[in-house]
Amino acid sequence: MTLVQLEYLLAVDTHRHFATAADHCFVTQPTLSMQLQKLEEELGVQLFDRSRVPVRPTEIGKEVIAQARLVVAESKKIKEIVQNQKQELSGELRVGIIPTLAPYLIPLFVTNFMEKYPDVRLVVQELLTEEIVQKLNYELLDVGLLVTPLDDKSIKELPLFYEAFVAYINPAHPLASSKAISPEQLDLDELWVLNEGHCFRSQVLNICNRGGAGATPSGHFDYKSGSLETLKRLVETQRGLTLLPELSVLDMPKEKKALVHSFQEPQPQREVSLVVHRSFLKKKLIEALQQEIVAAVPAPIRNRKKEQVVGIK
């Protein structure tokens, strides 16, 4: 049994296709297949059900793969120990970030991070929470930027800051005259929300204390959005209101900030965190990313204490 064989094993489990796994490992498919066959012969078990498309691990295969992930991860830590000793920050850092954070958080820190660490290649993908967790488990990402708590034992959460929710209200709406609102005043029939799959949607419905489907404030117009910017425009041009994260309204022009209304204390918050797999690597790089993000967040948000965190389920 070799580390190379275990890496091929993990690649097939990740991609569920021998040819794709071979491409990922920069070898030919016959080479990869031969090495996996040798591994199966040595262990005396079949690790994949090749009769199914896509291929899937057998029951014993699942257990072997889980252990293989630990072995390969531990072996990679040897290189990391050497790199840490050299005090070098270099290489590739693969980051997944949810869409309700990406356009507001990335511009705050990315320039300083890249200038400070010119030998680091930062690769960022916008993904939903479930996709980020899955890619972390398959080692296709190094770190995620999302909203917690996740209640996932395979994931380690590193809270960064607590961001308040605000209401964005059309001037013609009765609540537009209120300086601060309460969750009890919100009517789902007037509230624009994101599509299912977005954790922000779940939090908004939790603030309203309802598990409903969300709103389409006009009976003649049904629009399913995956963008907070679209929700803002709908509030401005149609009617009703929506809820937004605090970072998304910081750079608004003065006339649009008039549509922003805070909640009464204690304000509902979302916990923004870095998340990594329990056996994560690239610790120095991730620590550097953590420090740069916290330093770049505006002081009122950075210094806010944890109080009324809204769940995402």
Summed up:
This is Transcriptional regulator. With 313 residues, the protein is of the alpha/beta class. Helix content is 41%, strand content 20%.
Provide a descriptive summary of the structure in words:
This protein is an alpha/beta fold and 313 residues long. It has helices at 3-15, 18-25, 29-43, 59-85, 102-116, 129-137, 199-207, 228-237, 254-257, 283-296, 299-302; strands spanning 48-49, 56-57, 91-97, 120-126, 143-148, 155-169, 180-181, 191-192, 241-245, 260-263, 268-277, 308-309. The strands form 2 sheets. Strands 3, 4, 5, 6, 7, 8, 9, 10, 11 and 12 form a 10-stranded mixed beta sheet that branches. Helix 1 crosses helix 3 (29-43), helix 1 crosses helix 4 (59-85) and helix 5 (102-116) packs across helix 10 (283-296). The protein is elongated, with a radius of gyration of 23 Å. Keywords: Activator, DNA-binding, Transcription, Transcription regulation. InterPro entries: LysR_HTH_N (IPR000847), LysR_subst-bd (IPR005119), WH-like_DNA-bd_sf (IPR036388), WH_DNA-bd_sf (IPR036390). Belongs to the LysR transcriptional regulatory family.
Keywords for this entry:
313 residues; alpha/beta; Arc Repressor Mutant, subunit A; D-Maltodextrin-Binding Protein, domain 2; 3 domains; ten-stranded mixed beta sheet; 20% strand; elongated; activator; Transcriptional regulator; DNA-binding; WH-like_DNA-bd_sf; LysR_subst-bd
